[in-house]
Amino acid sequence: MKNFNYSIPTKIFFGRDQINVLGDQIKKYGSKVLLVYGGGSIKKSGLYEKVVDIFNKNNIIFWELPGVEPNPRITSVRKGAEICKQNHIDIILAVGGGSSIDCSKVIGAAACYDGEPWDLVIDPRKIKKVLPIASILTLAATGSEMDAGAVITNLETNQKLGTGHKDMAPKFSILDPTNTFTVPKSQTAAGTADIMSHIFEVYFNNTKGVYLQDRMAEALLKTCINYGSKAMENPEDYEARSNLMWASSLAINGLLTYGKETKWSVHPMEHELSAFYDITHGVGLAILTPHWMKYVLNDHTLNKFVEYGVNVWNIDENLDKYEIAHKSIEETKKFFISLGIPSTLREVGIEEESLEKMANQSTVRGSIGNFLPLDSKDILNIYKAAL
Amino acid sequence: MKNFNYSIPTKIFFGRDQINVLGDQIKKYGSKVLLVYGGGSIKKSGLYEKVVDIFNKNNIIFWELPGVEPNPRITSVRKGAEICKQNHIDIILAVGGGSSIDCSKVIGAAACYDGEPWDLVIDPRKIKKVLPIASILTLAATGSEMDAGAVITNLETNQKLGTGHKDMAPKFSILDPTNTFTVPKSQTAAGTADIMSHIFEVYFNNTKGVYLQDRMAEALLKTCINYGSKAMENPEDYEARSNLMWASSLAINGLLTYGKETKWSVHPMEHELSAFYDITHGVGLAILTPHWMKYVLNDHTLNKFVEYGVNVWNIDENLDKYEIAHKSIEETKKFFISLGIPSTLREVGIEEESLEKMANQSTVRGSIGNFLPLDSKDILNIYKAAL
């Protein structure tokens, strides 16, 4: 186990009607709010109206940035930062999924920065100050509600990059599972795949002596496997929605990473798919994951796959190790298919022509992953296998 | 899953040599420290000297409260509070296990209270303010390093009671597993039993829909089972010591409880044993736990024991449910015996004569537990079975 410093400052208000804390929590930071959200779903569900009601009752003035894209764009960040600067915004409230929250985080940093916001994505060290961020979560997926990272897309340069700063972690997040009752099946599936992928990124890892962290990771993986399809079959299954929602936060808030040396693999590979084709992030992850697993399986990584197969998928531990490993990968793929997620790149409109370009771009910051480091040639092979 | 508000404010500095952060962290709160510790073990190990060195280098003035008892007494709290009041102490640093930390927490509250410190144990609502608390942990057991509770013994009244306040949670705790290398075998065993008991208290529970929390609890139980005897066999096994140490904190920092309605059972029963006989807390817990399990096993609680047996002890899920349950209890008992912990009350000098008195006293605040609520008659039966 590696040394680590644990600090998870985000307060979580979890459960039905927790929106009731909103007024008091916001007023701790001021009275001028930038409200950030995506398409119209929060208006359809009535959540928008509830928020506005609370603002009015508490004399909170607000500005709006609607229309944040599913892969949030730097153009939205620029707009939001302008509003913050012009109106001396005190706190940014994202109402939505990871896209709105990620966008808000970088808006918060850009509002305190004099230069071009994209600088802060390319080089997180330039982030010195961030406006307070808060969120009301409506989609269990990215975990952005409880972590300090954000991913922003620049369509001008075909780049989708992660950035982060400790002060980007939301001051508080309201997690009411009923706010995810209206999430469509396909997004529920993609969200579940995203949560699982966050766990895989740190579970498939070489740090020794992290038994506790690995059992925790398996606990969360089993939660996703147990509830993913239940939430799809019965969108108002509170038990399923609440377990998935809490799993989304715990998967990425640091708990599974503390004590490990981590470097992600499948996310940076997927970011290129989304950057070039604007596909749903979780879908890209689900397509790539089994192929990534097959590619990195070797004599050195074998035992980790055996652990995964036995502990997560209950595969008979007396089988041959490679048989267990292959079965575990097969189960992973079958699970994503059972959620109705496409299993090939072609199904989501990605053809061979751009694979090489994407593979090259995914390694502009160097090789990816540390379970088995991958260069652009490796990534191209994985993309091809996933076609 | 129940509604919950998540907030775990304690910062953890985990790993080798993390004591290096001590000076900077203390100075965030002031320059006058009350140093609280137990017997001489921190002097033997050299830890005391390291702390004093850092204090001197950082111009930190300190007062000392040595000799805190294994079941910390209200008399020590009184002494500590007096020192704080007279010298305008800024922060209390506990160096030791749960006893020193618990004692420090109540000293911190008593230092801000004009009346008799025992009031604050009997009625936690009287706690309005607490001096900042910090800790350097030397024993993986109580989890006091990351929670907001404390247990204090009053030998004048033969009472051992829990109290708590959100501001009692340490501002920071330094968890260096090498500081537990010198913990004797018997204390390592008792500490492991204590961690497991904290988990049992919330795992054996009736709240519905808490799959995630239960899998997390199992992850931590497996960690204790995997490393308890390893740490005893090889006291300098860093992997074992670090996993146990981190498990001790996560078992009780709220993570396993959020979303559940919990009310403890075995701890309040054990507190009477320690209050009357001053025995090691973890030993009392290990003796009582299997008997408590047998006593509360019935048609309503059966499924939880099956879950426990299958998921934690790998008992064949195809067996008869009661067979699984009984086997799981047997495994629990065998595990504690394998750690060299006595398995009967008589072995630790407790005879039948005081059982009734203790059973009555354990329920002065009402019935205990909510998995199966127990009155004094039930508790007497469990004590008798454990004789």
TrEMBL record, chains A, B:
EC top class, as a word: oxidoreductase
Ranges of residues in domain Alcohol dehydrogenase iron-type/glycerol dehydrogenase GldA: 9-177
Coiled-coil annotated residue ranges, if any: none
UniProt-recorded Gene Ontology molecular function terms: alcohol dehydrogenase (NADP+) activity; butanol dehydrogenase (NAD+) activity; metal ion binding; methylglyoxal reductase (NADPH) (acetol producing) activity
The UniProt record lists the keyword Cell inner membrane: no
EC numbers: 1.1.1.-
Superkingdom classification of source: Bacteria
Keyword set, alphabetical order: Oxidoreductase
SUPFAM superfamilies: Dehydroquinate synthase-like (SSF56796)
One cellular component (GO) term of this entry: cytosol
Ranges of residues in domain Fe-containing alcohol dehydrogenase-like C-terminal: 188-387
Protein name: Fe-dependent oxidoreductase, alcohol dehydrogenase
The species this protein was found in: Clostridium putrefaciens
